[in-house]
Structures are given as structure tokens and as C-alpha cells.
Specification:
The protein has helices at about 10-20, 30-50, 55-85. By secondary structure, it is mostly helical. The longest helix has about 30 residues, at about 55-85. The mean pLDDT is about 75.
Length: about 100
């Protein structure tokens, strides 16, 4: 996402495209927006039928999820993707 000053925000179409690009799914626009709509619809249904009650435990769980995601991203940035591939690569032995 390009940084912009508060006095000059990006156009709405560009901002919407950035948000849609960040959604996890296949590159198709329909599957990306479908994932967001399905998730929010299921959550709204569960809350309205009192299948799920939003309480302090939910806030703590979301906080932990954000913290662990941040730690994983920082660790990946520090060590880089190369260390992940090195762990799975065998060096052939000279015979």
C-alpha cells in the first residue's frame, strides 16, 4: 500500500482494490469477495441466533491471533523465505 498524506487520500477505487487484493483466496475477484461475504454472513447469523456470544474471551482470542500473526510475519521478514527452503533441501553426498 502506498503511503499518502491525510490531506491527499487515494481514490476510492484504488483503496477498494488494495483491500480486495489483501483478502486470502484465489486471484479471482469473485472468490475473494465471496470469502469475505460468506465469513461475515456466517458470523452475523451465528450471533443473531445466539449460537455465538461475543464476550471478553473473544477479544482475548482475537488479540492472541493478531499477536501470533505479527510474530510470524516479523520472523519471516527477519529470517527470510530462504531459511524455510533450506530446511527442506537435502544436499547430495559425493560418492
Amino acid at each position: 500500500m502506498a503511503s499518502s498524506s491525510p490531506s491527499n487520500p487515494p481514490p476510492p477505487a484504488e483503496r477498494a482494490a488494495e483491500i480486495i487484493d489483501k483478502l486470502p483466496s484465489h486471484p479471482s475477484l469473485i472468490t475473494k469477495t465471496g470469502t469475505a461475504i460468506l465469513g461475515s454472513g456466517l458470523l452475523a447469523t451465528a450471533i443473531s441466533h445466539e449460537l455465538y456470544v461475543f464476550n471478553e474471551e473473544t477479544v482475548i482470542a482475537v488479540g492472541y491471533l493478531i499477536l501470533f500473526t505479527y510474530i510470524a510475519k516479523v520472523r519471516l521478514l527477519v529470517h527470510g523465505p530462504r531459511t524455510l527452503s533450506v530446511a527442506y533441501t537435502r544436499i547430495p553426498e559425493d560418492g
